[in-house]
Amino acid sequence: MRALRWVVVVAALAVVLFPFYWMVNTSLKPQTEIFRSPPTFASASWSLDAYATVLTQRPVGRYFVNSLAVALGTTALSVVLAALAAYGFTRFFPGGAMPFVVLLLFTKMLPETLLIIPYFRLMSDLGLLNTYLALILAYSSFALPFSVWMLIGFFRSIPRDIDEAAMIDGASYMQAFWKVILPLARPGLVAVALFTFLIAWNSYVWALVLTTDSSMYVLSVGIANMVGEYRVQWNELMAAAVIAALPVMLLYSLLERHLVNAITAGAVKG
Amino acid sequence: MVNRVRRNSIWRRRRLVGYAFIAPVFAFLCAVVLFPLAHAFWTSLMRIRGLSATFVGVQNYERVLGDEAFWHSLAVSLEFTAACVALHIALGLALALLLDQLRFARTALRIAFLTPWMVAPAVGATIWLWLLEPQFGVVNYLLQAAGIVRAPLAWLGEPALAFASVVAVDVWRGVPFVMLLMLAGLQTIPREQYEAAAIDGASAWQRFRYVTLPNLRYLLVVASTLDIINTVRHYDIIGVMTAGGPAGATEVLPVLLYNTAFRGNRFGEAAAIGVLLLAIVLAFSIVHIRITRPEGSASR
Q1: CB spacing of B101 vs A227 below 8 angstroms
Q2: What is the pTM of this model?
Q3: Which of A24, B47, B52, B264 has a CA 20 to 30 Å removed from the CA of B125?
């Protein structure tokens, strides 16, 4: 019975992970082998050539930098604003925190395709198309509610007695926040920052609309655009996909134990 | 008592300081969410031609609601969402039950099964474009080698196949999400209930039916509403794989909206479609929030 269970698990895993195996396999093949029939599942001619081509002859390095800049900008902006708000709510207005969280949940659920219309029109009116700023602002619109929601949870778990004690000892509100609470909340802050980063990194349709100049593409848009080429170089495309996917997989694995909390937005009663 | 008085006074005395902490986030949310949302509503009442915009009232809504394409898209959206959510829930629950019983490698397996969900949907969809490529794609090769199909299939070229394909890719991506939720739920079921059922001689199916399912009911409802909301508004996978084609077979509402705005250049109508989509999402959001009542969980 237990053996059977493992057989099913392994079979399911093979199906789920096969696309990633095929992505890596293809990315390591030389161009000539891509269109061979039957396809090769492992090959003596595996090499990193496609990666080299993608990074030197295609703007994938540039896409990577764009993704990184936008995701870091979004993370910085969202986490700073969220930390202030989470502190303000849990300390000064604990009764107001929950109505605010409900409001944020609604915000989180807005269809992004509806919002890209005003974003596109406003950003083009402001001359901000093809800028990091436009993407950072757009990404913050869905990253911020998430960050605030998560941080309110973390800040609540820190007793108010702690900052009260600090203030009785003469610290100001800002000092209590900066020197006492933030260091205590650091594990939570790191987790929230990483999640915010990943949300921004994986986003697609906003960047698709707000960037028209290919030098400003982020990875997701640049990769999806390579499919539209006259003759698709699948090994290079898959190499680019590996470059986009690998950091994400590593970061998420680190965050594994925070995941349930992060994705459910209040769905699991603890 | 003295302590209580002093505690409250510290925070009460300076409500202004509190406002200073929460004001930036409110200002920012107004700027990046509320204002664009209002702008979208406003756009839905305008006719946009190049740089000129004229107020036309509800004309865009009339046009959208009188258009065959909208109703077709709504139907596709409902079918797509129903198929995806049903499969997410069924397979996610099955996978969670499977993993819950394992003794070792639990964390590693959980991470492994989560990978489709971690990767950007647009990138995942791109990988599948290659797998499903009609001439050299590995899926056609495997199916032919196994004798399941005789000739290679044009996965994204025929309406029914294309619909099945985008559902399959969305299922591949969405199952881990439900699995994770269900694994968390399974942890909370008291062991004694299973022991009691075993003493009463319940079969594996009966234990599932009378112990596991009732305990997971709340979570299943929550996962379903959350998943409906996330699926019905999702653009990326279909946008990358078919852009709504062939012949509108995969044109769900977000894709119709995108195509109307950015291919058809009809922003007013697109915004009207968006507002109608928002109404659908909002209806499920209200259900979801009523069920979960975040007061309970966030106080943890």
Answers
A1: no
A2: 0.90
A3: B264
